[in-house]
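Worked example 3. Consider a protein that binds manganese (II) ion.
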Amino acid sequence: MGGLMDNLEEAATAIKMHDNFVLTTHINPDGDALGSLMGLGLALLNAGKNAVMIMPHPIPVAFQFMPGSRQVQKTSDVLARFDLGITLDCTDITRAGEEAQKVLQRAGKLLNIDHHISNQYFGDLNVVDPQAAATGEIIYDLLLKAKMPVTSEIATNLYTAIITDTGSFQHQNTTAKCLRTAALLLDCGAAHRVVQQHLYEQRSLESLRLLARGLESLSLNEEGTVAWMTISRDSLYSSGAAVDDSEGLIDYVKSLKGVEVGIVFKEVNPSEIKVSFRSNNYLDVNKLAAHFGGGGHERAAGCTINGELGDIEQLVIRKTEEQLFAMNENSGGPRK
Ligand SMILES: [Mn+2]
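Given these inputs, the predicted complex is written out as structure tokens:
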């Protein structure tokens, strides 16, 4: 097994020794998923290796500015065998999607690089650091360890990874180390303004209309500790927005004064509700989401539940209040 640093060393050795890689990340990718994928992918390509980056769906438009996004191939088009498969930001192998799973299982060895506390250690080699703010932060350390140059393109990818997973350095996972890594990435030529512009200044009118609908639905429990927002099929329709446009709405929910847990209920399909959780100070929402078959981090997690929107809202809010109450009982009052 070995410690985390041993595993980083071993991963660096594996990367130097092999020449034929396939890399992927989780479905519904975020900035960290794609930044880690393309950050590591480009580094391997720059080193003259064969590195195939695969995803089951096209890169979301919002992330197409990221260097290397046009080199990512459709998973179903890739039939070759590889020496080393690498998953990035995936808690378990199913997160990569069914097709990618087949490609990865054909590879000689599997390297799992992630920072989720709920990671399942499914690789032959696992580099899992829950202290890392983003998987991209681990990739930076790995490139350093493998003595592979961090070009401005790679830096922009890894910087995007850190920016998105820390909510622009607002979340609790913003450590001194993560800020130092971000600073080093700027030294390497990461395009700070380009990243900010593409991530936060390209909103569509539809997505802002969806925000308005979402804010209208904002509710608060009696104690004022749990707030939630509901994105129904109707609100998606009437705003003309896509499900992707609801990304980031949860930050508004948890910004409400006095709230410990923010929840967003999204009716992604009829009777299929995606639930996102954020906590501000003390509730472990990874545990809360795990109760419903999901997971993530202590302060940010999610799950998908099948059933009627209204029923699921009630169920989840009751469970959230229960866990909050249990914590407050144990500590003799709300922790600050
Ligand atoms: Mn991540």
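Take a moment to read the result before moving on. The mean pLDDT is 94. The pocket of manganese (II) ion is lined by residues 32, 89, 115, 134-135, 165 (CB under 6 Å).
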